Amino acid sequence: MVNLVEAQKPLLHFLVRRAGLRQHTVDVDGAGTVITFWVPKDKVPKDKPTVRDAAAEATADKKPPLPPAPAKKNDRPAVVLVHGFAAEGIVTWQFQVGALAKHYDVYVPDLLYFGGSTSPSTDRSPGFQAECLAAALRKLGVGPCAVVGFSYGGMVSFKMAEAHPDLVRWLVVSGSVLAMTDSISEASLERIGVASSAELLLPESVKGLKALLSIATHRKLWFPDRLHRDYLEVMFTNRKERAELLEGLVVSNKDATVPVLPQKILLLWGENDNIFNIELAKTMKEQLGEKTVLQSISKAGHLVHLERPCVYNQRLKEFLASVTATENPNPKQ
């Protein structure tokens, strides 16, 4: 029987290709760590299905990473879209790619153990994800860019912004936290009514997936059970590694620190987010300081970018246009 979710991929890929993106795989370290991307078609390295160059040896020798490539005068600002835990990149950002690709160079990676990305490393921390993603972006020649992170991808994006401020110039985060501390984890799980993050984010049954969607959305959605089963089969692969990613997320309260981030930051939130609620976002805004702005979108939950994509895209484009104005005097909407 045809898997309905898998059958929709060619259409999604067609639409993304029509927006000007192409699939590409980056060899991060020459030792088996690879990250799959959708990248602007004119930025795909020529005659190289997988990037392998001197940067791999530099990483292996633990030398400082390559600096971002200097932006050319005709380059458009780069925007990197970092997905969450329940879907790979292009599925997560399917309503944003076309809206942004008209005026920005859009990069959509799959984090490790999502899509075609993988690594032999046993490190499952958000910091390792951030280092691998930063290395891959540098190898693609991405200069200072805007990073948009959702949920788990937001945590990875915060780590990348802290470690690589020369690469991450602007930051947009939705439905996430600086770090998943003991207290935040326990409070969130208690509020949702589940015993563990894995129970919520790695459902094994149609019932479990329905529960996840119910919690993650403001509007109640209905899909046939077959579609839920097909989604489980296609999107929840690498279960062992993903369970380890969840274990690697939680840090003790005493070890958690608030980074001093130089970037302008937009916290773009669903007003009815039941996983990381708006109060957490308000606290995070105060912690991050005056360069951070919080905007909420009504009638939207954790999946704000999918529930209200038009409003989300407009707010996102307004922020990107404002922060890139100094480098691109005539930003278009």
Structure, explained:
Residues 47-64 have a biased composition (Basic and acidic residues). It comes from Urochloa decumbens. This protein has 14 helices and eleven strands. It has helices spanning 4-18, 54-60, 89-92, 97-101, 126-139, 152-163, 182-192, 197-201, 206-216, 225-235, 239-249, 278-288, 304-307, 309-323, and strands spanning 21-27, 34-40, 50-51, 78-82, 105-109, 145-150, 168-174, 180-181, 250-251, 264-270, 292-297. The strands form two sheets. A nine-stranded mixed sheet has the order 3-1-2-5-4-6-7-10-11, with helices on both faces. Strands 8-9 form a two-stranded parallel sheet.
The overall pLDDT average reads 87
| Helicity range | 40-55%
The biggest beta sheet is recorded as: 9 strands, mixed
Report how far apart the termini are: 43 Å
Query: What is the overall number of helices?
Result: 14
Q: Rounded to an integer, what's the Rg over CA atoms?
A: 19 Å
What characteristic shape results from the CA principal axes? Answer: globular
Spatial ordering of strands, largest sheet: 3-1-2-5-4-6-7-10-11
Q: Based on DSSP secondary structure assignment, what is the total number of beta strands? A: 11
Strand content: 15-25%
- Low-confidence segments, given as residue ranges, are 52-64
Secondary-structure-derived class: alpha/beta
Written as H for each helix and E for each strand, in order along the chain, the element string is: HEEEHEHHEHEHEEHHHHHEEHEHH
